Amino acid sequence: MTTTTLAVLVPLLPFLGAAAGLLLGRTAPGFARPLAVLPTLAAFVLATLVAARQGGGRAIDAATELTPTGSVPIELALHIDGFAALVAVLVGCVATCVQIYSTGYLRDDPRYPSYAALVSLFTSAMLLVVYSGDLMVLLVGWEIMGICSYFLVGHYWETPEARAASLKAFLVTKLGDIPFLIGLFALATDAGSFRITKVLGAVASGGVDHPTLIALLLLAGVAGKSAQFPLHTWLPDAMAGPTPVSALIHAATMVAAGVYFIARLLPLFEASQAAMIVLAVMAAVTMIGSALAALAQDDIKRVLAYSTIGQLGYMTGALAAGDRGAAVFHLLTHGAFKALLFLAAGVIIHAAGTNSLAAMSRMRNLRDRVPDAYWTMTVALLALAAIPPFSGFFSKESVLGAAEHVATGHTEHAPGAAGWTVLVAGLLTALLTAAYAMRLWLLTFRGRGAEAPDHGRQPLVMNAVLWVLAIPSLALGGLAFRLLPDWFDGGDLAPTLTTSVLGTGVALVGGIVTYAAWRHTTAVGARVPLGAVAAHPEGDAALVEAEAIASHEPAYGNVAYAPDPSDPGRLLLGPLHRHAAVGFHLDAVYSALFVRPVQAGASLVRFLDREVVDTYVRGAGTLPRWLGAAVRRAQTGNVQTYVSALLAGTVVLAVAAVLVATGA
Amino acid sequence: MHLAYPAVLSALLFCTGLYGVLARRNAILVLMSVELMLNAVNLNLVAFDVWLSKAAEETLHSGQALTLFTIAIAAAEIGIGLAIVLAVHRNRGTSDIDRLRDTAEGHETGGPDTDAPATGTAAEKAEATA
């Protein structure tokens, strides 16, 4: 088979798997698991083959036009360069891991077939986005991901949190998608084509007349999909979905799509200095804000969600510095270790029966209950905190190195201000990242208090997947940073001495400070009992998690916050803790700015409809009603009255007929 | 015999029947009055048939034949009518037409033993008109 055929099969196989899963899920439940895992696995293998054949050489382009549109043509096009090939391998790998893990995680779930089919559809949409060489076809995958995230985040639709979160995820990303669509149209009008290669050609020859406007419109869609400030609020709430879905959304698919999209069209963004500055500021605000928020969260998955937002901030920061190689490098390593973090968190939530860090910090020996999750999560957290030699170190240093390169004025395609913004924010975030990674690890595995509950061994598939993902988390960065430049634009990804020392230094400082704070507060914690533990510890992991999410708000008063005095994050953040726990009140701001005006408008419309329009309608009905009431009086129920009226009528008619006949 | 006698007699019979249908309160008597009206018509049919057949060369006596039909139909009608009256009487304890006003607009309850269904229908009607 040619490489093009293989590449077409990559998104097609999970799509067919999803269609078959949705059709057969009810009639043949036995096929649900093979139909979920095998197409995704095949897509992974094929994506690896495509990557091997492409080999970082010339981009593979293929296109076919289905039908003329009359104006700008829409083509089914492939555009596979080194970025696409490697990101597709990552997507395939993470999706396969998630599917295998889900067979264990949702083993008793009655809605597993539809769940698995939607995960397959999600994977296929992301692979379509990755391989597509046409912006309209890319948009199709982009929107399918939106609707799939709605269904998957709302998988536990029995709980109000999940329903609200799925709606929020859908609406917030749609808010970004509308400017995105307009931006695509504007871009196609300027460039005369939806093909990425032609668009980039037009950008290079200066054929795009409004790069700033287009770039900012596209940026709105990217901010929605990649959860960048100010459209990031859906992502922490999306934790209401099952853990494998969180892993899929956060590691490889949904959020990666935005970063990947900018990476593809980076020359367009570079054509506008303003867009690059906006990108840099967005990245800086996102990084620092999310890292502070992560330090204050109580739900283990929300910590990871905010950390995803922060790591995506690094990627957009690298893009703002004009280095897409560093951005996609961080995307790859982050995909591996973040998937691992989420999947391990799923195991821990199952074992502990709670998703609250405050409750876990009061359990002794939780790490002995889940040794696999303990070791793999330690690896992933070290990678997240960018400690050498774990993979996160190399990718984060390449981002910081790119920012430093720009800040010192060595390049002309990105403004120096953007470089400084990203560099300073990046270093500060490195400190905070190490702090919250340390806090997560200490609270989860170094708890003191009652013995952790024993629910027996976790399913084998779940633990096996963790070890599979631990390998790239550990080694991908160190092995790949010399090879990747051949696949990417050729820029050097090796860590530079200054940023390495600085980055690792602040990370170590963050970790040590958190450890000291934890030693200081842990004495207080033992005295305050706290914790809500799931009611059905023998149930499957998905059930335990759904119960944990549902019980967090009744137990602690908030989904994100627990009144735990022994939390080192509370000591470190001081008065900021309260605000950081609720994401700096951004939801409240949105509620005041958008939700309440819309609700007020809705109640105004309701008033106009109920009181004004309906009054006219009722008024118009009044006269007929009075007439009807008058006529109804004749209906007495006495048959003899009716016959009398009949007789009278007959007589009148007869007299009239006689009079007419006689001509009187 | 002159045609006037049977004609006047049938007119009188018809008027009596009409009065009975319109004014009597007992359903049985109303049915009897209907019979009177039918028989007044029968009398007319027979009388005019005889009067017409005097002038004709040959006749089929269709008036008299029609009378036979009317009698048969009247017998069937009175059977059904009496059965209905009997059923109503068993149900309601009365065959007084003035008190059988279930079809009235916003009617009151007809008797003590029809309370429950009557209020039920009243409520249904209120819902339907609301």
From TrEMBL, chain A:
The keyword Membrane applies. Its main location: membrane. The chain crosses the membrane at residues 35-52, 83-102, 114-131, 138-157, 169-187, 199-223, 243-263, 275-296, 339-361, 373-394, 420-443, 464-484, 496-518, 642-661. It is found in: Endomembrane system; Membrane. Signal peptide: none annotated. Residues 132-403 form the NADH:quinone oxidoreductase/Mrp antiporter transmembrane domain. It comes from the Bacteria. This is NADH-quinone oxidoreductase subunit L.
Automatic annotation (TrEMBL), chain B:
Residues 97-110 have a biased composition (Basic and acidic residues). It catalyses: a quinone + NADH + 5 H(+)(in) = a quinol + NAD(+) + 4 H(+)(out). Residues 111-123 have a biased composition (Low complexity). The chain crosses the membrane at residues 66-89. InterPro entries: NADH_UbQ_OxRdtase_chain4L/K (IPR001133), NUOK/Mnh_C1-like (IPR039428). Its main location: membrane. Residues 97-130 are annotated as: Disordered. Its EC number is 7.1.1.-. GO terms for molecular function: NADH dehydrogenase (quinone) (non-electrogenic) activity. NDH-1 shuttles electrons from NADH, via FMN and iron-sulfur (Fe-S) centers, to quinones in the respiratory chain. The immediate electron acceptor for the enzyme in this species is believed to be a menaquinone. Couples the redox reaction to proton translocation (for every two electrons transferred, four hydrogen ions are translocated across the cytoplasmic membrane), and thus conserves the redox energy in a proton gradient. NDH-1 is composed of 14 different subunits. Subunits NuoA, H, J, K, L, M, N constitute the membrane sector of the complex. This is NADH-quinone oxidoreductase subunit K. The gene is nuoK.
